[in-house]
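Quick note —
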Amino acid sequence: MKPKSAVKDRSLISLSWPLILTFGIGVLQPMMDSWFLSRTSETAAAGVGALMPVLGTVFMAIQAFSQAGASIASQYLGGNFNRHARVTQTMVLLGSFLLGIAMTCLIYPSSGLIISLMGLTGETAKYGGEFLMVVCAGFAFRAVQTTLTALIATHGLTIWNLFGNIVTIIFNAILNIIFLEGWFGFPKMGVTGVALATASSWLLSAIILWFVLRYKVGHHTLRSDLKRTRVILPDWIRIGLPAAAEPISFQLFQVFITAMVVHLGTLAVTARVFSANFAMFAVILSVGLGNGNQILVAHLVGAHDFKKADRRLHQTLISSCIGAFVVAVIVALTGSHLMTIFTSNPDVIKLGATCLWCDAILQPFKAGNIVLTSALRAAGDSKFPAIVGSSMMWTLGLGTALFLCFGLELGIIGLWLGMAADEFYRSVVNYFRWRGGKWQKYAVV
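Predicted structure written out below.
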């Protein structure tokens, strides 16, 4: 493995700005899919959009395990245990590929049940099922792509992730046009074409990022590494399982919220799908800064520089909360105009724009929660946000959302404000956990 300059001494911005743009491109892909689908049918866009929380659950599980492994590698790199870092990378790559295959085997035969549980019917159910059955075939590619992105970022080479994602989003757009318009002799494939373009772009991204890890990072897989993975595997499971539990719980929570929105009618579903796309602009900043901070915290914990890790966390927390709020307000101010990108229905535009103002309340708390949770995981303290966070989500958070939606009859506005309350509850508890300092005891190194 080639020697690298100390990542722990890098600035947050130098690490995070490529991560922000990379995540932004990742968000752009489902938005682009929604746009292409909306050109065909708003019903198709709503059906596929309603499944995003389900796909998000799968992706969050993969990402949590990937980032848990990357955090372990970061701690080893911070402590100058380069061989251990290499073994960890090999183990996480192989494990993520197998996890992706397992997800495909789980989702494909269950696609009909998932559509039914989401409450989708008629044309909406047809389009959603068609998309899900095709796109799930690419989960292994998505798993490898996500893991490679995390491992390359661990070495501070975040700019290469950005380059790889730019290439793949362009490739995805081209394939969407080809499959939807029937260019070059291809039939017009509609929803199936959009799903096929998405899965193909994951494969291309994984190939590009593998070459970056192999030749830019200098990663070599040795036979002896495969034997040594059993030494590091317990730590990966210890951190990875709880790390996956909280985001999976969050995505299942989103699935439940989406089911409640479906209960409110097609207007509410369409407004939520379209407005949620624009709400992601604020999340892009929070996730980018949170991931950059996670890399720094993991390296600093590996070097046992806990004071600097604490200082980094607070700097990131302030920047992320303020930045997310500003972005969310800008999006809300332009919400009515943004919604016209997807629809000309005045009722959808009005309701979607109102949802974006509710999102301005949600985003500062969401940003704080993202930064705090990722920092706790980076330090190895992943059980607390998993157990406490999930418990609060399904009690206080869900209770608040249902009360505002049905008790006060605020409809989708009440659900959105309930999600804001949930982020507030969990961010406060996670902050006090960090301030308590118990995370210092969970380091791998």
